[in-house]
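Re: Re: ligand-bound prediction request (bumping)

Still looking for help on this. To restate: I need the protein modeled with zinc ion bound, output as structure tokens. Inputs repeated here so nobody has to scroll up.
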Amino acid sequence: MTTATYYCRRCGFKEELGEHYYWRCPKCGAPLDLIYDIEWSPKGQGLARYSDTLPIKRINSLGEGGTPIVKRKIKGKTFLFKLEYLNPGGSFKDRGAALTLSYASMLNYRRVVEDTSGNTGIATALYARVNNMQATIVMPQYAPEGKKNLIRLLGGSIIETPTRPDAAVKVLELIDEKTCYVAHTWNPLFFHANKTVAYEAFEAGFNHGTVVLPIGSGSLLLGVYQGFKDLVELGLLKDMPTIIGVQGVSSAPIYELIRGKTPEGDSSIADGIMVRDPPRKYEIADIIKKHGDIVLINNDEVLESLKELLKMGFIIEPTSAAPVAGILKYMENNGDIEEPILVPLTGSGLKMIDYLYSLIRKMKTKT
Ligand SMILES: [Zn+2]
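Reply:
Sorry for the wait, this slipped through. Here it is.
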């Protein structure tokens, strides 16, 4: 069925995929890696176009991936915006959900649970439908109503908790032998799906420059990094691009690992990157240290970029404006970076139009 192998760097645990679904090491509890040979033979569309470079070959698809890239200038710099918000469930999380739930379905799981601040819940409920599974989503009560209603509309049940960290604890009570836990912050299958963002950008002509990525759990950064690394190892790309990570001042665990201390401020508007303790934080910090840098943003900076991006016609949620705010600030403080600047616009604003409208209206009355 497959030749990919789960591998634990901490204790050495190894097992081929095809028998069990693991979201972390069953022996020691550390995050797992995946080892497999890859072949570059893109054919077809979407995520399945790269099945020879993914850990499982059969993907039950709903048309995820293959998102367009749009070129625009901001302050004289060339940006390539990859419209990840045009995925079927309105965010890049559809890639990870498609791959993870295809594997769970292969193993005949019929129920799936996930903890999330929103977008991964939508992606999980959506791909549960595709795979004929029942989804239960554990999320904080303050998550946007639009996201919750979309999950309900897709047939998912919701369990609300007081905070996001409570959701991560509650979800563990719901796992049993018939129920798989997506665990996007841990699961290696989930972030390996995000390699396809790098492959698609490469096929669209991106072969040098800078990639700017928001870091919440880090699954996008881990995947995009691995994707470009694959392309270098395959001899298709000469060098890795520079990778700039963006976090918010209210929740900056990777920044703290690298710099030691976070400046004061509030970045709660970028709710999608408010992850306090990403399980793979050391890996993420190592990638940043080796290939780029990290920058922090606050609410005012996110709002300013959100307004600009909406003006340009990109209907995104506030979190998706964070990387643009981050890279503009980075260039102001550190000088020029190599262009073009590739920025995935991660999540759709259509799930929260009332909220977006009130944010922008408030800005107008302020100025
Ligand atoms: Zn282990």
